[in-house]
Amino acid sequence: MTDPRTTVVVITHNRRPELLRTLAELAALPEEPPVTVTDNGSTDGTAEAVARRHPDVRLLRPGRNLGAVGRNLAVRDVRTPYVAFCDDDSWWSPGSLAGAADLLDRHPALGSVTARIIVEPDGTDDPIVRELRESPVPGPPWLPGPALGSFLAAATVLRTDAFRTAGGFNPRLWLGGEEELLAADLAADGWWLTYADHLTIHHQASAVRDATLRRMHGIRNTLWFTWLRRPARPALRRTLNLARTVPRDTASLRAFAEAAAALPWVLRERRVLPYEVESRLRLLEPAQRTSTARRYTG
């Protein structure tokens, strides 16, 4: 079942045990996908362990933590039509990469396919799965699943050329909710995003993570995306909603302060989305207000 259509890209930072487990799972896939790892400046021997145990993996060592931009670095040299992302604590199920490639082959206006996320070791659905299944975004009749307004990088296969044309992940956002801006730009370029329930990826959250920092970046990046792409009234509405609903703590305060301090470049780079894309985002707002799975809340 070797499938040459998709390259898997993984970014990592100081999570050697988790990454080695992920690479072992990817190496066992029947698709035998090429794998690229960007080691974001790890100091725990990650790069050396990958080179020793997985010599077939393409290993990039930028020498510093690039965050999500480590994926951009990897995609520069991808030669397959599709690129699949996963994190160092997640891995694709057998057949899912081929299934996603089949959907992208079949539907030329489809830009990305997001899989169902199974939380390990319990084998249960991630809370976000229900929201993906019940997405209120309307899509064309040919779309093979629910239309999405965004995607989760750790569970998505994208067209390589579409990713490059849209500019990849914005380096200013670094990491934490960085997908929303790219997803909107993909939609503005005419691509549709979908969810495929029959495809799966497994996620066993690493214990080596700073949840508070990730939440802070998630709030900040949500604000930046809102100010960069949404019209004035929806941007104000979403900003006020975030101010009312995020936890009342130092992390939230820092997130708003960092976001506000960046207003000069945000206004300079602001580019409002086309009406048809903005109209889809407005349909997502009620779900965002009631979501229990949004990453910026916990």
Summarize the SSE layout with pairings.
Blueprint: E1 6-12, H1 16-27, E2 35-39, H2 46-53, E3 58-60, H3 69-75, E4 82-87, E5 90-92, H4 96-106, E6 110-119, E7 124-125, H5 128-133, E8 156-159, H6 160-166, H7 179-188, E9 192-203, H8 211-229, H9 232-245, H10 250-261, H11 263-269, H12 275-290
Parallel strand pairs: 1-2, 1-4, 2-3, 6-9
Antiparallel strand pairs: 4-8, 5-9, 6-7, 6-8
Helix pairs in contact: 1-2, 8-9, 8-10
Search tags:
9 strands; 12 helices; 298 residues; nine-stranded mixed β-sheet
Q: What can you tell me about this protein's structure?
A:
The chain is of the alpha/beta class and 298 residues long. It has helices at 16-27, 46-53, 69-75, 96-106, 128-133, 160-166, 179-188, 211-229, 232-245, 250-261, 263-269, 275-290; strands spanning 6-12, 35-39, 58-60, 82-87, 90-92, 110-119, 124-125, 156-159, 192-203. Strands 1, 2, 3, 4, 5, 6, 7, 8 and 9 form a nine-stranded mixed sheet that branches. α1 links the parallel β1 and β2 (35-39). α1 packs parallel to α2 and α8 runs antiparallel to α9 (232-245). The longest helix is centred in the last third of the chain and has 19 residues, at 211-229. The protein is globular and about 50 Å long. The model has no long low-confidence stretch (mean pLDDT 94). Its EC number is 2.4.-.-. It comes from Streptomyces atrovirens. Pathway: Cell wall biogenesis; cell wall polysaccharide biosynthesis. InterPro entries: Glyco_trans_2-like, Nucleotide-diphossugar_trans. Belongs to the glycosyltransferase 2 family.
